[in-house]
Amino acid sequence: MNMSKAQEVMEKDAYQVAVRLSRADYTRIEALVNAGLYRSSADFLREAVRDKLREVEVISLRDVSLEEAERLIGEYLDEHPGASFTSEIADALGLEYGLTFRAVRRMLQKGVVRGARL
User: Fold this and answer.
1) Is the residue at 106 inside a domain?
2) Which residues of 75-104 are buried (b: 16+ CB within 10 A; e: fewer)?
3) Which is higher by pLDDT, 59 or 98?
4) What CATH number is associated with residue 91?
5) Confidence check: pLDDT of 9 > 70
6) Which residue in 54, 83, 97, 100 has the fewest CB atoms around it within 10 Å?
7) Would you state the torsion angle of the CA atoms of residues 46, 48, 49, 52, taken in this order, to the nearest 10 degrees?
8) Residue 81 domain-assigned?
9) Sorting pLDDT into bands at 50, 70 and 90, what band is 115?
């Protein structure tokens, strides 16, 4: 059987991990596969691992002044036109929520940004 270049690269950069599952877990996964929600049990497990890795991802917060936060937020808004939630901005920039809300409030007072009407 000949492998395509993409398959060869995937095989070379991939790792295989063996895992034991209870009969109940295996049966539930196979039911999802049979329902057409996943191509295979391996496909389900890859997605489950990625979801868990995203969930436990370590987040580090920047230690910046209020003025620096305003500058960073301004740059973010320039690069991302349209409405943005303050919490989205904080997450994207790695800023503490309280600092981000204070900076946005100051920017609103100065007229540098405007609040979105929902």
Assistant:
1) yes
2) ebbeeeeeebeeeebbeebebeeebbbebb
3) 98
4) 1.10.10
5) no
6) 54
7) 160
8) yes
9) confident
Q: What is the pTM of this model?
A: 0.52
**Whole-number Å distance between alpha carbons of 98 and 117:** 22
Q: Are residues 50 and 12 in the same domain?
A: yes
Nearest CA to 77 among 115, 113, 110, 103? 113
State how far Cα 49 lies from the chain centre. 14
Q: What is the DSSP letter of 73?
A: H
94 Rama sector, left if φ>0, alpha if ψ -120 to 50, beta otherwise: left
Between CA 112 and CA 75 the distance in angstroms is: 12
Residue 51 located in a structural domain: yes
Same domain as 76, residue 42: no
pLDDT digit string, tens, across residues 36-74: 999 999 999 999 999 888 877 766 788 999 999 999 999
Task: Give the CA-trace dihedral at 66, 67, 71, 77, to 10 degrees.
Answer: 40
- Taken in order 7, 8, 13, 14, the sign of the CA dihedral is positive
